[in-house]
């Protein structure tokens, strides 16, 4: 339950108070087509605004391009970007941390090595295991069945959801969030083939470094480096089922959709976006501000910012033309066969 005054006190540059009583109360947030008299509604179109007004929603956050009524009892805020407004306001309604509620900060079934160091107000859930010389920053949350191996570091206010694994010597920054079943610091995939065809494992003795404000979805894997480090830069976000191989370096503020994969020793700059199931081959360099469409394959360096797609990779506009032309190949082949036959030529 949130009042309009609480939203106003956020002082967010993305949410501007316009009019209406500041003691208006919203108990929940709903989409416009489900608006009711207890819900806060975000509206980006005139018909959405009409639905919210008809439902007598107490608080409406409207795109600044919309014309707001002056005779309504609703409290109005405006925004230049609905998604940024949601990012500012929805944390007020988010009960995520209630998932970790327990009678004591450290659950009695958790196992913590005597030489581990936990900061102030650290929460540790049932059956978590925290190894030797682990350091956990203030206010961090360690979920049930999380395993943190020896000498790993976890930054302040980071959240590790249940069954996350953090390998030895991994360094995790502050304000990170890793969702269930994500693995940080498992061995990179590295084998040498012997003359008899058997594969000899090459030990992976490096580490993983993940900087501040990184979020990883469920079932992600970030492999430790062979000798040095695998690194994910500040502010990068990954969806579920993403894989980062050993020795990869990823810059800041990148976004990767579900199924993104990058092979060993490749480098990605900053402010890039990757669609679902995009794959990057090994030893590839991608510069800053690159967009890769879903299901694309990157097998050579990308040295110029821009949007790309397809396999082999092309500028996005060209890849869309290629994709459109593929559906015509059967017809073109049949017509070509008729031409060859008409001309009395031999097909090779």
Task: Offer a quick outline of the entry.
By secondary structure, the protein is an alpha/beta fold. The chain is 14% helix and 29% strand. It folds into two domains: 93 residues, MurE/MurF, N-terminal domain (Udp-n-acetylmuramoylalanyl-d-glutamate--2,6- Diaminopimelate Ligase, Chain: A, domain 1); 215 residues, UDP N-Acetylglucosamine Acyltransferase, domain 1, CATH 2.160.10.10.
How are the SSEs ordered, and which strands pair?
Elements (H helix, E strand, L loop, with lengths): L1 E2 H5 L7 E4 L5 E2 L1 E2 L9 E5 L2 H9 L4 E5 L11 E5 L2 H8 L21 E2 L4 E2 L4 E2 L4 E2 L4 E2 L4 E2 L4 E2 L4 E2 L4 E2 L4 E2 L4 E2 L4 E2 L4 E4 L4 E3 L5 E3 L5 E4 L4 E2 L4 E3 L5 E4 L4 E2 L4 E2 L4 E2 L4 E2 L4 E2 L4 E2 L4 E2 L4 E2 L4 E2 L3 E3 L4 E2 L7 E4 L4 E2 H11 L2 H14 L6
Parallel strand pairs: 4-5, 5-6, 6-7, 8-11, 9-12, 10-13, 11-14, 12-15, 13-16, 14-17, 15-18, 16-19, 17-20, 18-23, 19-24, 20-25, 23-26, 24-27, 25-28, 26-29, 27-30, 28-31, 29-32, 30-33, 31-34, 32-35, 33-36, 34-37, 36-38
Antiparallel strand pairs: 1-3, 2-7, 21-22, 38-39
Describe the structure.
This protein is an alpha/beta fold and 348 residues long. It has two domains: 2-94, MurE/MurF, N-terminal domain (Udp-n-acetylmuramoylalanyl-d-glutamate--2,6- Diaminopimelate Ligase, Chain: A, domain 1, 3-Layer(aba) Sandwich), CATH 3.40.1390.10; 104-318, Hexapeptide repeat proteins (UDP N-Acetylglucosamine Acyltransferase, domain 1, 3 Solenoid), CATH 2.160.10.10. The protein contains five helices and 39 strands. The strands form six sheets. Strands 10-13-16-19-24-27-30-33-36-38-39 form an eleven-stranded mixed β-sheet, with helices on one face. The longest helix has 14 residues, at 329-342.
């Amino acid at each position: 339950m949130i009042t309009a005054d609480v939203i106003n006190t956020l002082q967010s540059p993305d949410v501007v108070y316009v009019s209406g009583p500041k003691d208006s109360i919203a108990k929940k947030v709903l989409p416009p087509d489900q608006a009711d008299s207890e819900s806060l509604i975000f509206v980006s179109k005139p018909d959405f605004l009409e639905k919210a007004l008809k439902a007598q929603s107490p608080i409406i956050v409207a795109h600044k391009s919309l014309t707001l009524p002056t005779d309504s009892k609703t409290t109005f805020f405006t925004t230049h970007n609905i998604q940024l407004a949601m990012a500012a306001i929805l944390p007020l309604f988010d009960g995520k941390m209630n998932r970790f509620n327990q009678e004591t900060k450290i659950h009695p079934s958790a196992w913590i090595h005597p030489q581990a160091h936990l900061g102030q107000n650290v929460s540790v859930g049932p059956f978590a295991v925290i190894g030797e010389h682990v350091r956990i920053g203030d206010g961090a949350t360690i979920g049930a069945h999380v395993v943190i191996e020896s000498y790993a570091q976890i930054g302040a206010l980071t959240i590790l959801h249940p069954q996350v694994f953090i390998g030895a010597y991994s360094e995790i920054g502050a304000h990170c969030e890793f969702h269930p079943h994500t693995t940080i610091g498992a061995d990179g995939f590295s084998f040498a083939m012997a003359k008899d065809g058997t594969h000899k494992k090459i030990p992976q003795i490096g580490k993983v470094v993940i900087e501040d404000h990184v979020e990883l979805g469920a079932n992600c894997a970030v492999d430790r480096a062979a000798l040095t480090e695998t690194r994910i830069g500040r502010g990068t976000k990954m969806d579920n089922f993403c894989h980062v191989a050993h020795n990869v370096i990823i810059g800041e503020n990148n976004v990767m959709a579900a199924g993104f994969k990058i092979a060993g020793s490749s480098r990605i700059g900053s402010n890039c976006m990757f669609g679902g199931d995009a794959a990057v081959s090994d030893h590839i360099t991608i510069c800053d501000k690159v967009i890769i469409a879903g299901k694309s394959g990157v097998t050579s360096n990308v040295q110029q910012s821009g949007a790309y797609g397809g396999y082999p990779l092309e500028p996005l506009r060209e890849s869309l033309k290629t994709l459109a032309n593929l559906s015509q190949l059967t017809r073109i082949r049949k017509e070509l066969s008729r031409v060859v036959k008409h001309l009395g030529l031999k097909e090779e």
